[in-house]
User: Fold this.
Amino acid sequence: MRVLIVEDDELLAAGLMRVLEQSGYAVDRAGNGEQADAMLSVDNYDLVVLDIGLPGIDGFAVLKRLRSRNQSCPVMILTARDDVADKVRGLDSGADDYLVKPFALNEFEARLRALVRRSSLVNTSQLACGDLMLDTVARRAWVGDAELSLTAREWSVLEYLLLRQGQVLSKEKILQAVCNWDENISPNAIEVYMSRLRVKLEPAGVNIRTIRGFGYLLESGDVRQPA
Assistant:
């Protein structure tokens, strides 16, 4: 999933980015309100982690502008402000969660996973297709009883496909979802990841079908692309 962290504290932002990237997220960072608003206006994110006390426009203004554009991505406010009035204002302005600093990293990650599940209409941490099962909390995958070995990038691509089973996904959408702005990965790299995943998923009865001119479709069963 693609996450934008809006945080002016460079040390905290770097720590959060490192933790999320290790969990397979693609993460970008904005250090002030204007930069965050510009990034959100031109790009799509699955999650936004938003500080309130930002240089320039504050987090409340960023949130207000985001919702005024009818962008529905989940937003977690992450702030040192623990006043009830601020919490009420944040939630009433369109935030989906409110976490006060200091916080435990495992609670932060658990809250993000809960937001992902709600936004994806998935009520469990376990995603399945055929004999394939992914546990998004444990970050482990199985084909039947055999554990599946995946690289971090393969995991990100497969999780994205599983969360959108039955949808045809373009290379551009997949690339946008699993890469941050600092990475220079070509659409051809997606073909490589798909090829590797097809080999690993074949025993699970799971097929990644190429829909020519449109993208990829994840489905269970012995479905083959027409000649």
